[in-house]
């Protein structure tokens, strides 16, 4: 538990984290905390703001007598600098280690005793804490979350153990998983100046050198009501939630959070290629092109066109990769494309794959390159475009089956600095994308100059074995 | 079909809350004997369907991977459509089609919106892949080859190696010893005819249940079930599986792997789905290692000593005795220390049982979390498929609550002492120099 979402590779895309347009958020009414709260209500989402700056988003879903509550902080690994990588995530772990009022572990015990489930996750652009509870028990979560927002103790003896736990987490997720390892090195190579070059979980050496003081500073810097958004989705009355939130979070003092430097990625000037040698059975390929996100795009339609492009190539079993690379030519045992348009900074349009038996990494790379060339040369067919759009529309219905996911979308958008109202516009934005626009973004962004290629070159798993002969350094068996 | 990556482990909190009732499950049979379980959910314009056959890896015989390969191949071609056409038709209506298999079951699932114009074609495809798969030769070769790649990929993962080793050691000659993903040897042995035979024998109405949750009325659900099963033969239920034998002695298996961590699994055959000790063991394990960070194992291994990111124990109730598993991962140097703490925690728990406070806290968590368990159509369809497949009573969810509350500390201690034997467990350690 206390997971981080490194948003490994194509996860964000597969979660279908859909969103938004790149317009400025509409200004809210001046903060008021009179008996009648000022709410902005759009499509069932109620937005409030407390005097101390904390934002509250509430969405009703009355299908089951439960609610999910999430507290999102604008901090994550992309806020970190060298030497303290992973500090956001370690702090997330330490948030369960006690305040004056609640000793270490009590947070979890109280939630458990109330039938709740809880966890937390850290990403590049956010840190979030959540509980799911029977609806009448939400104030219990509010009390605990408000307490640890300002009163965390960070006991050194707890830190000493917990940072070991995080190192074990890193070993499990990254060190001993060749695909994660390749992705980590890929990111380190693809980003030159962007903080996305660092892993969410942090470099091992930074974890080893981390001090309580680093966490203390980080906590002071980012954990304040004016840097947080409370999201509640479930069988609730928004006005009641507002009143309860005000009761628990209202008294918290705001603080001046640090000004975030832009840390924009410099424009690439040529292709980058890396090889990672690690014990594994199979080779593996990651390719990424630097692209804008909704937040950074100059042309607001471009991220939507990139999103459609990802769907054309890899939106399920009918998309081109499954049809042509896995079934048709059978070059790939697996081949994926993905794009996360909700990143706070410029991001990567990603491809990854494993060649099928008897095929090689160069063959797979060429096949993917040929697919990319085709979207630059030919307009995608109307039926392909239509298919992607239909899936977006039905996907919006399926999303409503999960209160957690609904809350997650609201929290994520708000925390990366996008307007949550864009959620409702997403299907229309996607519907507006034309075949010509798909071709244009491919021509503009999927170019060699923007490309980083990372290849996993297998070392024998049996350390006594002689290395298999390879062809061109990366031969698929 | 791509295996469904979101196979929800049934480690979900199985609970009941206060006097709240579960969903009213409507149950009937199709004319040819398939059992139907239906819960109307009118709130959202969508439907979830799961069809489960007693056709999992336990039916592989000496061809490990056969059940998984069969399930994977269903949407690779029917009498009238090829794989591309099937995939396109599914995507054209925004549906999602999936299949998965475990030791006990093969599950084929559909999610669709209920708008007639979209649901009708979705059901058409779903019915075709279930009832008229043609298992094209080329697709068979390709998917078998992809499963072989999958087997190789698992060899990169110390966790996967540990799990495979664990099952094999636990079950010996029992069908549950089968690696459902197959092995290089077994996959190379499988022929297309084996897939066809597996399909013909097990994908039959009397060997199937269908769970439906969505914005349909009873009449619609009835005609949907008939439509799906109409062209499946009646057939026969699968033969009863032999009981899993108890282990007779302790066994420790170590395997070297070039990893920084060692993955440790410890356990024995545990309980059946309808086991008389189910509730005592389930609630007891919640205290021991089944409640995340607040469980004893997590407290000892992670919270007190910082030895592992995840340390746990759980029962996997299956048709026959599924495994009781304790597990963790830790840096190679700590493997022996962690193993010692894990064993001691288990022995202490068996000797003493839970404290009254622990039991109370676990019951509160289990019963208080009842509504969470049924908070989405997805969760409900998984529960009713489980209830249907294992033939649990229709009031299973309603009664769960009371059964959890009725468990005493003495019953837990007694059940653990009779059923859990640390001196006869399998211990698997994969990592480092082994």
Low-confidence stretches of chain B: 1-19
Helix content bin of chain B: 40-55%
What integer value in Å does the Rg of chain B equal? 22 Å
Portion of residues within helices of chain A: 25-40%
Shape of chain A: globular
Number of helices of chain B: 16
Sequence of strands across the biggest β-sheet of chain B:
1-2-6-3-5-4
Number of strands of chain B: 11
Question: Helices and strands of chain B, in N-to-C order?
Answer: EEEHHEEHHHHHEHEEHHEEHHHHHHE
Structural class of chain A: alpha+beta
The chain-level mean pLDDT of chain A equals: 90
Largest interface: A-B, 75 and 81 residues
What is the average per-residue confidence, as pLDDT of chain B, rounded to a whole number? 94
The secondary-structure class of chain B comes to alpha+beta
Could you spell the SSE succession of chain A in H and E letters?
HEEEEHHEEHHHHHEHEEHHEEHHHHHE
CA-atom Rg of chain A in angstroms: 23 Å
What does this protein look like?
The complex is a heterodimer of chains A (477) and B (434). Chain A contains 16 helices and twelve strands. The N terminus and C terminus of chain A are likely disordered. Helices cover 39% and strands 18% of the residues of chain A. The longest helix of chain A has 20 residues. Chain B is of the alpha+beta class. In chain B, strand 1 and strand 2 form a beta hairpin. In chain B, helix 9 crosses helix 12 and helix 11 packs across helix 16. The N terminus of chain B is likely disordered.
What would a concise description of this structure say?
The complex is a heterodimer of chains A (477) and B (434). With 477 residues, chain A is α+β, with helices and mostly antiparallel strands.
């Amino acid at each position: 538990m206390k997971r981080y979402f490194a948003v490994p590779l194509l996860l964000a895309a597969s979660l279908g984290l859909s969103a938004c347009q790149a317009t400025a958020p509409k200004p809210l009414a001046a903060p008021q905390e009179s008996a009648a709260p000022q709410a902005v209500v759009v499509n069932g989402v109620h937005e409030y703001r407390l005097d101390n700056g904390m934002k509250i988003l509430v969405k009703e879903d009355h299908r089951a007598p439960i609610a999910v509550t999430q507290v999102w902080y604008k901090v994550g690994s992309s806020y970190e600098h060298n030497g303290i990588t992973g500090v956001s995530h370690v702090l997330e772990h330490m948030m369960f280690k006690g305040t004056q009022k609640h000793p270490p572990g009590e947070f979890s015990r109280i939630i458990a005793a109330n039938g709740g489930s809880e966890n937390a996750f850290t990403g590049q652009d956010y840190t979030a804490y959540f509980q799911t509870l029977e609806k009448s028990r939400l104030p219990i979560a509010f009390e605990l979350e408000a307490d640890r927002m300002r009163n965390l103790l960070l006991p050194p003896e707890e830190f000493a153990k917990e940072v070991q736990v995080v190192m074990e987490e890193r070993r499990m997720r990254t060190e001993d998983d060749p695909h994660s390892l390749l992705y980590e090195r890929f990111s380190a190579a693809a980003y030159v100046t962007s903080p996305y070059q660092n892993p969410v979980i942090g470099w091992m050496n930074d974890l080893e050198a981390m001090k309580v003081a680093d966490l203390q500073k980080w906590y002071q810097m980012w954990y304040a009501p004016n840097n947080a958004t409370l999201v509640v989705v479930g069988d609730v009355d928004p006005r009641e939630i507002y009143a309860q939130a005000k009761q628990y979070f209202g008294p918290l003092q705001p603080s001046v959070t640090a000004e975030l430097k832009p840390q924009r990625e410099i424009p690439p000037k040529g292709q980058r290629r890396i090889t990672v040698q690690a014990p594994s059975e199979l080779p593996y390929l990651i390719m990424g092109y630097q692209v804008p996100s909704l937040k950074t795009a100059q042309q607001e339609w471009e991220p939507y066109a990139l999103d459609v492009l990802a769907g054309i190539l890899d939106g399920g079993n009918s998309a081109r990769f499954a049809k042509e690379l896995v079934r048709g030519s059978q070059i790939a045992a697996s081949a994926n494309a993905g794009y996360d348009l909700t990143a706070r900074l410029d991001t990567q349009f990603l491809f990854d794959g494993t060649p099928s038996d008897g095929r090689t990494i160069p063959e797979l790379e060429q096949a993917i390159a040929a697919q990319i060339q085709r979207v630059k040369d030919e307009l995608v067919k109307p039926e392909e475009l239509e298919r992607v759009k239909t899936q977006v529309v039905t996907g919006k219905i399926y999303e409503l089956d999960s209160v957690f996911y609904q809350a997650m979308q609201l929290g994520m958008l708000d925390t990366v600095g996008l307007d949550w109202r864009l959620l409702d516009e997403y299907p229309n934005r996607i519907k507006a994308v034309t075949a010509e626009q798909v071709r244009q973004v491919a021509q503009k962004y999927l170019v060699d100059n923007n490309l980083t290629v990372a290849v996993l070159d297998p070392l024998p798993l049996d350390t006594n074995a002689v290395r298999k002969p390879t062809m061109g350094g990366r031969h698929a068996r | 079909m791509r295996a469904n990556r979101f196979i929800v482990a049934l480690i979900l909190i199985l609970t009941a809350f206060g006097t709240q009732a579960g969903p009213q499950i409507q149950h009937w049979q199709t004319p040819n004997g398939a059992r139907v379980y239906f819960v109307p959910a009118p709130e959202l314009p969508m439907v979830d369907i799961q069809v489960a056959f007693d056709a999992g890896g336990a039916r592989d015989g000496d061809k490990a991977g056969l059940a998984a390969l069969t399930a994977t191949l269903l949407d690779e071609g029917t009498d009238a459509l090829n794989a591309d056409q099937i995939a396109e038709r599914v995507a054209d209506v925004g549906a999602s089609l999936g299949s998965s298999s475990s030791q006990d079951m093969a599950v084929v699932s559909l999610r669709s919106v209920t708008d007639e114009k979209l649901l009708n074609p979705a059901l058409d495809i779903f019915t075709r892949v279930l009832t008229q798969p043609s298992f094209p030769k080329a697709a068979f070769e390709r998917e078998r080859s992809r499963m072989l790649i999958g087997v190789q990929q698992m060899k990169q993962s110390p966790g996967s190696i540990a799990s495979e080793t664990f099952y094999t050691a636990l079950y010996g000659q029992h069908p549950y010893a089968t690696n459902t993903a197959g092995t290089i040897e077994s996959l190379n042995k499988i022929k297309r005819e084996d897939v066809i035979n597996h399909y013909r024998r097990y994908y039959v109405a009397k060997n199937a249940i269908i769970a439906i949750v969505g914005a349909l009325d009873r009449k619609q659900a009835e005609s949907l079930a008939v439509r799906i099963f109409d062209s499946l033969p009646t057939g026969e239920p699968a033969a009863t599986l032999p009981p899993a034998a108890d282990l007779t002695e302790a066994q420790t298996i170590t395997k070297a792997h070039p990893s920084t961590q060692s993955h440790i699994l410890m356990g024995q055959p545990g309980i059946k789905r309808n086991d008389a000790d189910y509730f005592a063991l389930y609630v007891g394990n919640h205290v021991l290692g089944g409640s995340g960070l607040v469980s004893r194992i997590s407290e000892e291994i992670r919270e007190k000593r910082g030895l592992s990111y995840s340390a746990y124990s759980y029962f996997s109730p299956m048709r026959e005795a599924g495994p009781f598993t304790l597990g963790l991962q830790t840096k190679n140097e700590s493997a022996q220390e962690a193993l010692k703490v894990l064993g001691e925690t288990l022995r202490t728990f068996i000797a003493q049982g839970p404290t009254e406070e622990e039991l109370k806290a676990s019951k509160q968590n289990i019963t208080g979390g009842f509504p969470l368990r049924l908070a989405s159509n997805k969760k409900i369809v998984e529960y009713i498929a489980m209830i249907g497949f294992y033939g649990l009573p229709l009031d299973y969810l309603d009664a769960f609550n009371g059964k959890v509350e009725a468990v005493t500390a003495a019953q837990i201690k007694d059940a653990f002492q009779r059923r859990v034997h640390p001196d006869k467990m399998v211990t698997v350690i994969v990592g480092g120099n082994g």
